[in-house]
Amino acid sequence: MLRKNWWKILSVACLLYAFIAGFLGGVPVKPILNETIRNLYFHVAMWFCMMIYFIVSVVYSIKYLRNNNLKDDIYAIEYAKTGIFFGMLGLITGSVWAKYTWGAFWSNDPKQLGAAIALLIYFAYLVLRNSITDFDKQARISAVYNIFAFAMLFPTIWIIPRIMESLHPGGMGNPAFNTKDIDARMRVIFWFGAIPGWALLGTWITTLRIRLKFLEEKKLSNV
Amino acid sequence: MLCSFITMAQDSTANKKVEMAGVMRSNGKIYVVVTVLVIILSGLTFYVARLDRKIGKMEKEFSGK
Fold first, then answer.
1. Are A208 and B48 within 8 A, CB to CB?
2. Other CB atoms within 10 Å distance of the CB of residue A63
3. Contacts of B30 in chain A (CB under 8 A)
């Protein structure tokens, strides 16, 4: 998987489809949202990808704790970093979108606060990790913390924003996928273009970082 | 004064007439946005693919040692 090429081409093909069909395809006509509904392919996809990377990351952290293989630790940290990056993009793009639909970049909406808290918890993961110099200790403590950070995603992103009243779509249910907001035309582009495209692109970048990390380790052990 | 009015009027009528109906200008020029995005995406892809190749080369060097 790390050095195969077909899925990289697939990623770009999906993204091309999402970019072209995303702008030229038909969308439901909605007040306030207008053409910004097309942000679904970009803003919402960022959060989906973040979640995918965090899940992959926590799986590798658990794997590390079970077998103490430092390779799994590298996978975990690099996927978490990509997840944090996509989450930041999601937060920034969401805030721009909010400015023109809700009226302000930041309105302390439960969705925004929850996402911000979740990201801060993951920032702490990076800080904690870099503050430990011993390799094994670093890997072990950060793997345990990663599981905690992942668990905190549930209240901050999945539960609280759904039970509190929110400006975000789906305040009382599924965000982004209210059947009345999105129609079949958009769903096809989202599931077959945007999600696989972005998810694979992020994976591609992550595998590059992982390979670079492996090279660094090899260099260290060779010296 | 009158002259400028006339030229303004001429300008506005000229603008209306000079609407070229090329593909790129139709639909509120959305095709221009799509083209820009496709260029950015292909540029980024090229960049990441090059990075991929460079790291691949480094890996080969290391395994050759």
1. yes
2. 17
3. 23-24
